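[Q] Does anyone have a clean structure-token version of this?
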Amino acid sequence: MKKIIILMMLATGITGKTIGQEVQFVSNTDRIFDMPAGYLKRSFTVDLGKGNKMQLDLSSIDDLERFKNIDSLLRVFLQDIDPLKDSLLDDLASKRIDYHTDEMGRIKIRIQVFRPKGTSFIMQQGNLSSLKLEQDTVNFIGSHHFTVAATLRKPFTEIRYYRLRFIVNNLTDLNSYLSGGLNEKIGIIQKSAKARWIKNDEGQWHIKNGDRSIFSNHQPAGYVSGTGDYLESRIAVNFQNYKNNFVPSFSLGVGLGFNNGRVKNEFGLLWEPNFLFARNTLGNLQTFRNDFLTFTYHSTDLKKDKVDRNISFINDFSFSYLIRRSGNFFEKNTMRIGVGQVAIFKDKIKLTPVLYFNDFFKGVTPGLKLMVDF
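[A] Here you go.
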């Protein structure tokens, strides 16, 4: 028991704020030209050949409609940056251009030029030429207000963000995409978002028997992990104490998540066999398996400072009921509740206080439970 208490103190020390640890500062420029954290829910990539790519990052698949005329979008963009071409003359530097359109139709442009620290060259057939190693990036960014019909919550107004990104060897490559061929790619993504997707050897998801140039680096149909409303499997290994016993266990089950971009509510139902050890009348060590059925609930405020997210007491709860009893370790109708947790390593390792009891809070026994998620 003392070792577990020491472990909890160490974990709390790791996750708590330390001297010199500050909340990450977000500048006004970043607020305008970057998508806020937590809003990305779907992401698709289109291989354009020769190392060039087009990437779509969306809060909602419905915003694909905004990019059905990419050729017109590129044509207007190239006209708008023509007066700024003097800022883009360095052929060896990589450029990032952010092109932001707000709901009033106003356009904001940011140009960043990243010059290489050294000079690179290529020798070919006796000719020496300068070599550009980094690609250029163009981001088309927008947002709009809409009403969220949220699960388990009253409707509310929220902002939806979207971004179209081109990663190209040179900005001049954009001229070759004015023919309208990319509009067809958008249409394919719209029609295939609910189709079957398969994973290749590189870990990319493709539409089965579909256009191989379209893929996602995240999950099938472009879903980003832990976003939207989702159903997932859950596997964990657990270690806990019960009275004077060390109790290893594992958890298998399903989780249901509801994510509206502002609050994420997660529910879980798990089968959890616990293993206890004792010697029988012959002196041989015997294993006793006691199974619990566990319900879990966790709520995350996605807008809250991430530094404080690791420790949660009000928004984390679990309830377990003994469904299979072996040996004399647990009383009949034993239950267990857990409230709050300390989490580290991106919530993969969690430590939570628990209370065991039977019937109406008889035989109350405190404990600590360490969970390792997979």
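[Q] Thanks! Anything notable?
[A] The helical segments are 2-15, 28-33, 70-81, 181-192.
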